Amino acid sequence: MAERKNNTGRGLIVASGLLILSKLKWLIALLKFSKFGGMIISLLISLGAYAVFFGWKFGVVLIYLLFIHEMGHLVAAKQKGIKTSPAVFIPFMGALIGMKEQPKDAATEAYLAYGGPLAGLISVVPAIILYHFTGQLIWALVIMLGAMLNLFNLFPISPLDGGRVVAVLSPHMWLLGLVGVLVFAYFFPSVILIFIIIFGFFSWWRRIREDYMMKTIDLQAEARRVLIEKIKELGKDLFYQYYTDEEGPMVNHVMKGFLTRQISEDQALIQDKLSRMKKWYIPFLQDKSRLLREKYLIQLQMNQLLFQIIEAIQGTEDISMQVAEQDHVIQQLRKQQDRINKYYHSTLRTKLIVFIAYILLAGALGALFVYGQSILNDYSFNTPFS
């Protein structure tokens, strides 16, 4: 009988929920098409998820802290003139904003990243005041949780905010952060920490391998330059100098066949060289051999491209078009090199300011965490915040 009553009660709750949802479906549809609709919907979903597992008070506290944190990033981005999308809340993962354009350098990225934890610090101030006047433990929870979340976010490892802040200082900071999170994950295992470690490792590795990347870009640019010279030579080799039709000089198809055969023979020689080389090399120690292999692979690509160009050429105007296209590719490669060279470059003054700001913020959040934790430790909890 009791079980039947429980089932009836659950049925009434479900039915009531469905009725409410049906009445609110127009509001959900409206939110979907509004600028901040996605943010509001994701916020409510996250709030509901946290409330189910941890109680509604804890859920509200967590959403408040995450919201203020993300607003800090949005304000910082607006100050730097970088367009962003509204925040999106992901249950048990946190929240994030999307940038519609990348920062021009690491110093700008550090400014954007710093805005989140700084806003997080500010979000704790009202809780300090309210606890002082009311003595309610919920405000101590806000202090402790807000400080803890933002302090953890300051860990010097990408993709956390701290990793993006210290990127302007040195890539070695990322390695320290990586080791720190590994130690933390050993004592407090978490799926989220595993993802952070994996992402952080590849970010650090990509950063310290930028010199090698620059050398491969040089190889690609040089290969394109050689390709341009070969394309220009096609103007002399592929067209009869004294035989023309209504569309201009006639294509020498015999020479086309000869040139493509030459390319095929060259490809075979390169493939033979590659077959005698290792496919894997020890980073740093065997970079010279790896670059040689990379050079051969690029030559294969350029030969294949030249083969396709020869097959496709129908008139002299195709020569100019292909030269212009390869020139454009070289320009893009040089721009990529320029971005890599300049992105992490900053003055000593900028590095000093970032370092001091980072230490001060981490220290303030650490002190607040200890303060909030000490308040909570003075009490024994028989019931959760719900």
TrEMBL record:
Transmembrane segments: 12-33, 39-69, 81-99, 111-130, 137-155, 175-205, 352-371
Domain (Peptidase M50) ranges: 59-132
First-listed, main subcellular location of the protein, grouped into a coarse class: membrane
Source organism superkingdom: Bacteria
Protein topology in the membrane: Multi-pass membrane protein
GO biological process terms, semicolon-separated: proteolysis
Cellular component aspect of the GO annotation: membrane
Keyword Protease: yes
Compartment(s) where it occurs, according to its Swiss-Prot or TrEMBL record: Membrane
Keywords: Hydrolase, Membrane, Metal-binding, Metalloprotease, Protease, Transmembrane, Transmembrane helix, Zinc
Claim: Metal-binding is one of the keywords in the record: yes
Cofactor: Zn(2+)
Molecular function GO terms recorded: metal ion binding; metallopeptidase activity
Similarity comment: family membership: Belongs to the peptidase M50B family.
Protein name (database record): Site-2 protease family protein
Organism: Pullulanibacillus camelliae
